[in-house]
Amino acid sequence: MEYCARGFEMLTRRTAITLPGCLILACSMVVGQINTATILGSVTDGSGATVPAAAIKVVNVATQDTHETTSDATGSYIFDRLPVGADAGP
């Protein structure tokens, strides 16, 4: 019986240490949630060659907010920190 009581005591101590740690981790994950999105890609022509300096536009369907950028020298583009929503484009 003594062995069982010791095991229970160890389990209780482990729970007392682990549970607060899990709660802290869960709270930090909730705070870390973000409500922005990123869209990235590459612009190519019909032959598959990249297109530098191409104009790209993203429109939020719900709010009609627009975001514009141009592709870089390698044809790549990125829209960073967009508000989350239904977008049309690029």
How many DSSP H or I helices? Answer: 1
Average residue-wise pLDDT: 76
If strands are numbered along the chain, what order do they take across the biggest sheet? 3-2-5
> How would you sum up the major sheet?
3 strands, antiparallel
* Distance linking N and C termini: 70 Å
User: Which residues form runs of ≥5 with pLDDT under 50?
Assistant: none
Helix content: 25-40%
Radius of gyration equals 26 Å
Order of helices and strands: HEEEEE
Strand content: 25-35%
Descriptive account of the structure:
This protein has a 3-stranded antiparallel β-sheet with strand order 3-2-5, with no helix packed on it. It has a two-stranded antiparallel sheet with strand order 1-4. The N and C termini lie far apart (70 Å). A hairpin with a 5-residue loop joins strand 2 (55-60) and strand 3 (66-70). The protein has 90 residues and is of the alpha+beta class. Helix content is 33%, strand content 31%. It has 2 domains: 1-33; 36-88.
